């Protein structure tokens, strides 16, 4: 997988990954604990695929969330 885009929001950062054709979603979601450990994140959310795309989204809570004005 390769990171294609990073979007930082007020409470989460989303990493958009492109994966090779033929890679099963279950293979990606099975790596959730390994991804959490690699990112030192308490929790993550995997969105596979991101609707309307062939990319996988991984949302990681920001350590210091900001307030939206």
Automatic annotation (TrEMBL):
What region holds the FtsK alpha domain? Answer: 1-62
Cited PANTHER family: DNA TRANSLOCASE SFTA, SPORULATION PROTEIN RELATED
Indicate what this protein is called per its UniProt record: FtsK alpha domain-containing protein
Which organism's genome codes for this protein? Staphylococcus pseudintermedius
């Amino acid at each position: 997988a390769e990171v294609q885009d990073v979007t930082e929001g007020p409470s989460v950062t989303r990493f958009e990954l492109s994966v090779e054709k033929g890679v099963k979603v279950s293979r990606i979601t099975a790596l959730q604990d390994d991804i959490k450990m690699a990112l030192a994140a308490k929790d993550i959310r995997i969105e596979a695929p991101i609707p309307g795309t062939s990319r996988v989204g991984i949302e990681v809570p920001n350590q210091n969330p900001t307030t939206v004005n």
